Amino acid sequence: MNHWRINEDTFEPHLKRVHSQETVYTIGNGYFCTRGTFEEGYPKAGPATLLYGVFDAAPLVKEELANVPDWTVIQLFVNGERFRLDRGMLLDYHRSLDIQHGLIRRSVLWESPQGVRLRITSERFASLADEHLGAIRYNVIVEGATDSHPVEIVLRSSINAAQGNYNLMHFNTLDQGYQDDLLWLLSETKKSNVQLAQTMSFTSDRIHFHKEVIASDIAPGIHLCGTLALGESITCEKLVTMYTSRDGVEPLSTALQHHQELLNDRSQIYDHLLEQHQEAWYHFWQQADIIIEGDEKAQIGVRYNLYQLRINASSHDSRYSIAAKGMTGFGYRGHVFHDTEIFVLPFFTYAQPDIARNLLLYRYHLLKAARKKAESFGYEGAQYPWESTLDGEEATPPAILHAETGEIIPVLNGTIELHITASIAHAVWKYWQVTSDDAFMRDYGTELLLSTAMFWASRAEKQPDRGDYTISDVIGPDEWHEHVNNNIYTNYMARKNIQVALQTLEWLKTTSPEKARKLATQLNLTEQRLSHWQDVANSIRILQDAQTGVFEQFEGFFHLPELDQAMYAGRRDSYQAILGIEALQKYRIIKQADTLMLLTVLEDEFDFKTKKANWDYYYPITDHDFGSSLTPALHTILASEVGQFNAAYRLLMKGALVDIEDLRGNTSEGAHIACAGAVWQAVVLGIAGLRINKAGYTTNPCWPKGWTRLAFTIQHNGKSAFIDLRPNMEVTNIDSIEKVEVPVEVSRSNARRRA
Known about the structure:
Blueprint: E1 5-8, H1 15-24, E2 27-28, E3 32-34, E4 49-51, E5 55-58, E6 62-65, E7 74-78, E8 81-82, E9 89-98, E10 103-111, E11 117-126, E12 133-144, E13 151-158, E14 171-179, E15 182-189, E16 195-204, E17 210-214, E18 221-228, E19 233-244, H2 251-265, H3 269-288, E20 290-293, H4 296-311, H5 339-351, H6 353-365, H7 367-376, E21 399-401, E22 408-410, H8 413-416, H9 420-435, H10 438-459, E23 461-463, E24 468-470, H11 488-511, H12 513-522, H13 527-539, H14 575-579, H15 581-584, H16 595-601, H17 608-618, H18 631-641, H19 645-656, H20 673-687, E25 691-692, E26 697-699, E27 702-703, E28 709-716, E29 719-725, E30 747-748, E31 753-754
Antiparallel strand pairs: 1-9, 2-3, 3-4, 5-6, 7-8, 7-13, 9-10, 10-11, 11-12, 12-19, 13-18, 14-15, 15-16, 16-19, 17-18, 20-28, 21-22, 23-24, 25-26, 26-31, 27-30, 28-29
């Protein structure tokens, strides 16, 4: 097994498999992602290229990332017969995704119905060095024919504008044309009026091939026509640039100029661009790679998830964030959830803090909309929407067709799933703790923390009979229980939000008094208001059994009957799909980590005894297989802490392989980006046991069977630290050490390592 490649050695024509692999073989660079469809097409394929922050209106869901004209199209005809995998005879097939270099390669040996045998190879990348560029190298060799006559070859390369999100078309063609060696297409989204310019060049190494430019508003293209004798080949190179009106430039003229400069730069343009692209990936892996020795499957699985995190995040654009499916598919329409802050942001905070900063700035820029939402419900401060896009307004659809049950159901998340507000505040706080980015906290973070704290203080209700504060009628992270009161995650995170806001305000008064005074005036932070906040934080209702230490997920949860899971052995659906939404709420069974997520996110707030007691109670009643992809990997952290090492490894692999092996059966809708972030946390915070403090960091690794090395790099307080761990070795923060072969079972190392 290659530790850097996802390989496919047979072509499976089942459509579900085809669509799933389109997601797995996605390429991208943070500006755009392109699904791994075949250049020649396939019946009912799902080609899609999605651009960071390019939305258009859609029924019910407000708006969605808009599928742009397909830039990858190369159709091959041999003696008038079309090459496609559902035609002729497929004699050999291999495809690989080189995640080290962000590169798809495919090799096919194909025989046409007339008996012409061709070897077709292609290579494709979305440049990480030049985010506006996509490139394809396409090679055809004639390996056999029924007679000695030359074979007629036609290659049709185009930009196909007839692409939509499922059946919804978002782009209209404004104009198209041809200038020098460049074909171009200018499009515009129907409702949001975002203009997109795409330019294309298509060249070959066969000078005798005839070149023809095809004008079309639907699929403008360049055709190459000629003949090849037995043993001869043709290599074509396709370059495409893309610019939008969101880029702050005139899209068409900029795209044309950029593309022409690329062509004028040198003769071996494709090789040069590929080299630059690979160099950019090299720098990323220097920052972000996780090295696992002794477990090849875990190594490739973890690296694949790191790859997904990078291709779905812009390196510089703070106007948008990372969606639940990123830009890899149409699932969740490109909407942003709390997935980003809780599951994804820790990776960027520790590995690429500049990107983490931009992701948090996205939330800061949308404070106005969050304040508007809070006010619309009669509360103060800032309440963030459950789903958001560009303007920060609530984008959660009012109802959906349930994918598993077929029911049309109301979606309550946008109105009563509140914990996203505290999750965002926590991400701001954690970013500051890791990076020591005082300028961010001074200019942006403190205002966000204070604004969200204000919301919680107004949302909590004083109960005269008990003298405490409650938060009623919510949906917690579990999501299978609606309209609950005093969800432990929501209440505890709200308290933490208020506490860190007050702490940060005191810090700001000391370090930047003028900024503190401005915020106090802007937000009307009177002594009376701040005193009320403190009272809420001190007295918010926290449900916990005094004897066992187990937190009650919400009021009344302990009294629900436990679901007999043995009755559903061998199931292939979630309990919600089996029982229905209403019936499921009556049982003590949960979709995903809720209480246990609290103990993970705020891990330093709780002692071992509390963590172990809650693990023992909640882990068995969580649907780890079909509930949510978010939490198996996140559970790894807590499992590692409480000594459940076999469970920790098993859960890590559920997360690491969720898309590669389509474990949830829904990879076709897009990659599980939050799960990808959780995989990083599972390895670094769970298996390695990394913890930071002001002085530095500690590690406390548990070693899955066969692992002989775990190494990674983090950024802490603006400095880079390379952490290299081996079983039974006191070694850390060095550049290289000799490999030590130590056969180990799953065990917890007693050593605590500090740098």
